[in-house]
Amino acid sequence: HDIPDILKTIHAEVRERFGQHAGKVADYIPALAQASPDAFGMAVVTLDGDVHTVGEAHAPFSIQSISKVHTLTLALDKAGDDLWKRVGREPSGDPFNSLIQLEHENGIPRNPFINAGAIVVADVILSHYDDPEAALLAFLRERSGNPDIGRDDEIWESERKSGYRNVALANFIRSFDNIENDVQAVLDFYYFQCALKMNCIDLARSLQFLACRGKCPSSGEQVTSIERARRINAVMMTCGTYDAAGEFAFHVGLPAKSGVGGGIVAVVPHVMNLCVWSPGLDQKGNSLLGGYALHRFTRMTGLSVF
Ligand code: GLN
């Protein structure tokens, strides 16, 4: 495949099809609303390390829920399969910030990629790492090869101030004894992971181990076990784009994880990683242009796990 040419075609297509200001930039976190609605960037990183980009692939953006893949990896590394006693792996079919299932399911979130599940994963990380923020940063910097990755202070502050739903989720889960640490400390770590800034290339690189049987393709380091990499991919496929995961499987056919900052990463096992960024979201909180771009990419290349 001529990847550079395909990326160029996709870039032109999204402009033509959606015009300006497509989708709606998330504004329930006030600082996120400042993102440029017309930004679009895409990066492909092959297992050989070749990088192809189009648009604003070098611009850092708020990774938001994409960080849930990295924290799940870290938590599984420490807690092993016991983690699955505290969080499920079934798609929720409800919005990412929904409280509804927790009441009937004893405070066990459906999966680690909705907010409730990620808050439990954050709690597990707090129980196992002396300095959880440093551990997550070190992991992201090493996996992406970018030592400059850091927190966007404004977004972090903004989430802390406006995180009413997350406060409710964490306290509700705590009432079922499925949070062990101080609730505010868990939330602060959760806001930290959401407020990290990375660009499309960093993000695609950071999950290369998921395309390569748990191994970093350049250093050969085993980041997570083969079996765990397979399972993280499975959860991304079924739950990574919340209540649109069925649509994503149908139209894209790759394990993927989105965030309300407008980023989506996808894994083509044994072949490559992709990341697309465009802040305008659809009604389910996934990047509108990002979803379309991934759909076109898999159509044009024939790449799919199916
Ligand atoms: N920080 C966001 C929140 O907690 C993350 C949600 C997302 O990216 N889907 O609401």
TrEMBL record:
Record flagged with keyword Cytoplasm: no
MF-aspect GO terms: glutaminase activity
Annotated catalysed reactions: L-glutamine + H2O = L-glutamate + NH4(+)
Keywords: Acetylation, Hydrolase
Positions that bind substrate: S65, N115, E159, N166, Y190, Y242, V260
Superkingdom field: Bacteria
Range of residues in the leader sequence: none
Enzyme Commission number(s) of this protein: 3.5.1.2
Gene Ontology annotations of biological process type: glutamate biosynthetic process; L-glutamine catabolic process
Coiled-coil regions listed in the entry: none
Alphabetized InterPro entries for the sequence: Beta-lactam/transpept-like (IPR012338), Glutaminase (IPR015868)
Assembly and interaction partners: Homotetramer.
PANTHER family, per the entry: GLUTAMINASE
Family: Belongs to the glutaminase family.
Protein name, per record: Glutaminase
Source organism: Luteimonas chenhongjianii
